[in-house]
From TrEMBL:
It holds the Pfam family AP_endonuc_2. It comes from Paenibacillus agricola. Keywords: Isomerase. Residues 15-251 form the Xylose isomerase-like TIM barrel domain. InterPro entries: Sugar_Epim/Isomerase, Xyl_isomerase-like_sf, Xyl_isomerase-like_TIM-brl. GO terms for molecular function: isomerase activity. The keyword Isomerase applies. Transmembrane segments: none annotated. This is Sugar phosphate isomerase/epimerase.
Length: 259
């Protein structure tokens, strides 16, 4: 069954619950970069959230590089182990690997070496996820935010090489629109999709712009996708747009007969 959430700080969980959202998607890096005292104080907010923290984004802080000459595998492994432990404690299902600042290829660094580093990272993550119910969703970003993994098909290219059920791909309506990526790539890569991000024109709230939602949802239906859908965008009038966007999304999905 399709469920709807919003990418927001944990402090807004009760607000989302009030408006009828199913879950909240939070950024993991800001939590993990707190000092120990602040982390221990903050963690219960996620574990005991008013609505479940089913998904996470912003996996790596910008100063932890996963591509290029500054990669420190020991630091990456320790960070990931702590991230997975934290997300398991929160009872989460999905976490997103976007992290454009961490994964972008530095000038002068060979793309082939960058691809090897990303595959190495994904293998490390797959190992960390053994015995958990967590799935990683590789997020294709637009070319203003990253110079590698900029389409759903490219995300699937990396996931296929790992070939592990815990490594899947996200389709983000905003990034797809920015790159003029054909919507039928959703069906073409349906077996690899595990999460969806949405927005609308100007990366604003769903229902406030001209994105072709009817076509987008039709592709999701054709792909058999009925998982989580998170809005990731800027709000101009949260008290109006949060409930209106949920109503809009539910109506778009219902119109296509997607439950």
């Amino acid at each position: 069954m399709t469920t709807f959430g919003w990418c927001m700080p944990i402090e807004h969980a009760e607000e989302l619950q009030k408006y009828g959202y199913d879950y909240i998607e939070c950024a993991v890096a800001p939590l993990l970069t707190l000092d120990d005292v602040a982390f221990k104080k903050a963690l219960p907010l996620y574990v005991n959230s008013a609505i479940p923290v089913k998904a996470w984004n912003v996996l790596f802080p910008g100063d932890i590089k996963v591509v290029g000459p500054e990669v420190n595998e020991e630091i990456v492994r320790k960070y990931l182990a702590r991230a997975v432990e934290t997300m398991v404690q929160a009872g989460s299902s999905i976490f997103v690997f976007g992290s454009g600042r961490s994964r972008s290829i530095p000038e002068g660094w060979e793309r082939a070496r960058a691809e090897e580093q990303i595959l190495s990272l994904l293998n490390i993550i797959a190992g960390e996820l053994k015995g958990t119910n967590l799935v990683l969703a590789i997020e294709p970003l637009n070319t203003k935010e990253s110079n590698i993994i900029t389409s759903v098909s490219e995300g699937v290219y990396f996931a296929k090489q790992i070939n592990d059920p815990a490594i899947r791909v996200l389709a983000d309506f905003y990034h797809m629109d920015e790159e003029s990526e054909p919507l039928d790539t959703i069906v073409a890569n349906k077996d690899w999709l595990s999460h969806i991000h949405v927005a609308d024109t100007g990366r604003l709230a769903p229902g406030t712009g001209q994105y072709p939602y009817e076509s987008f949802v039709a592709q999701l239906k054709a792909a058999g996708y009925n998982g989580m859908v998170s809005a990731e965008c800027t709000l101009n009038d949260r008290d109006k747009e949060l409930p209106a966007s949920l109503e809009f999304m539910k109506s778009q999905w219902a119109a296509q007969g997607v439950k």
